[in-house]
Design brief:
It is built from 3 helices and 10 strands, in the order E-H-E-E-E-E-E-H-E-E-E-H-E. It is an alpha+beta fold and 198 residues long. The protein folds into 2 domains: 4-84 and 160-197, TATA-Binding Protein (2-Layer Sandwich), CATH 3.30.310; 96-150, no CATH class. The strands form 4 sheets. The protein has a 4-stranded antiparallel sheet. The chain has a two-stranded antiparallel sheet with strand order 2-3. Strands 5-6 form a two-stranded antiparallel sheet. The N and C termini lie close together (11 Å). 35% of the residues are buried. Bound molecules: zinc ion. Zinc ion binds next to loops.
Length: 198
């Protein structure tokens, strides 16, 4: 069970907001007894940090059903900084990108025919996302309507999200819908959830 993660990505926070917001969310999770302030790197395989907060006494309140008493979840890593996040086994590309202006969908990975990205189609997104992670701004021109659309507004579908703040729950049982709703309320932003295996 140790190498599974569930991730909550804040898809609205800016790079500037992410740090203070992360601190506020950690305070809240600690006050709810879901994590402690003890740090550990055990079982943490997040992309940009190698430590997380140890689970708190009441961690089971955040998960579905009644957790098995023998279950010992791992740390919760908090990732601050503009980054793209992938679920599952971690493809580096989105399967598709849908333009929010004209709704045209650009296919990047042509499942189930192919399992690799069309590099031609993905290149402008790769470059736009790289510019965004560096500067906070990056756009891609829609191949259909021609509009220049910020990378944060393209719809990449499930399993690929851009965000400046993310929370990786390592080795936790599935988080409950009520906890996720509460989490979003505290955050005050839209989120996307991923799960996967390291
Ligand atoms: Zn378009």
């Amino acid at each position: 069970m140790g190498d599974y993660f569930e991730r909550i990505v804040d898809v609205e926070a800016t790079g500037e907001e992410a740090g203070p917001l992360a601190e506020r969310m950690v305070d809240w999770l600690v006050s709810e007894g879901l994590i402690t302030r003890e740090m550990s790197g055990e079982g943490v395989y997040s992309t940009t940090v190698d430590e997380g907060y140890e689970p708190g006494r009441d961690w089971a309140r955040a998960v579905q059903g009644s957790a098995e008493t023998w279950w010992q979840p791992g740390p919760v890593a908090v990732l601050v900084g503009r980054e793209y996040h992938v679920g599952g086994q971690g493809q580096d590309e989105a399967a598709s990108a849908t333009c929010p202006r004209c709704d045209a969908k650009t296919v990047i990975i042509d499942y189930p025919e192919k399992f690799e990205a069309d590099e031609e189609a993905w290149r402008p997104f790769r470059e736009g996302i790289a510019a965004w992670t560096e500067t906070g701004e990056g756009s891609v021109a829609c191949p259909v309507c021609g509009a220049s659309v910020p990378v944060t507004e393209w719809r990449f579908g499930s399993g690929f999200a851009l965000g400046a703040l993310a929370f990786d729950f390592w080795g936790w049982p599935p988080l409950s819908d009520s906890f996720l709703a509460e989490f979003r309320r505290e955050l005050g932003h839209r989120t996307e959830e991923h799960s996967g295996k390291f």
